[in-house]
Amino acid sequence: LIVTTLGIDAADTLKGSRSTLLGQLITATDSGCPSGMIESPASVTFTCVDVYEASPSEKCTDVSMSSPVSVEAALDRNDCQAISTEKVSPWSNVNRADAQLLCTRSGKRLPTASEWYEFSIGTPDDPKVCNTDTDGVNATGDESECVSALGIYDAIGNVWEWVQDDVYDGTYDGRPLPSSGYVTQIDSGGVPTVVGENTEGYNDDYFWSKSVGVFAMMRGGFYGSGKDGGVYAVHAATDPNFTSNAIGFRCVQ
Fold it and tell me: What's the whole-model pTM score?
């Protein structure tokens, strides 16, 4: 149902636990990052990124965040924030503005599309490792090997992750985007510049775009993406007001 609702199934479009040792190492590292975040030394636009997909803090009214109604109630509380912690349900059913607000309340912000790519590089594109071929969302960090080179979990699969970039009539960052298709070439931020109908090249990852309208971006894929999900998978045809249990977020600082 989620695939149909989001329009993110490639066939329809084309017809075309965090390990104990690593946890100890990250905790012991004096990076200056808040709890639940990891330092990104090579980045010039952010310092820290959430290790896990965002989840509700204890002050939120419904920590399961199982429906848009419970999310709306939580957003009415100024002390309800987004946190990064393992073995809990990631926060879903939030639109992009909600995700931005929740990151801000935590002293953080949503990443850009290129920042997301930067901290997600190295995540294995394998359904046996990441949650991309199941019928539901897993707890954060459940897939202990679904980790990027930097050390963040679940960049691929589980839930799509909002980023802060906008797409206007098929144009992103001053250039036209390609039409929907399998990724065959990317820019420095991992956003596709060329797509095709064959699945060779960038791990069978898929790109979704529309030529008319104002859209937000989300990256990585969700639990039902199959081979279409990955670090090069970008959905650039999503209404920024859209919510789903297949869409979440994480924050940077």
Answer: 0.87
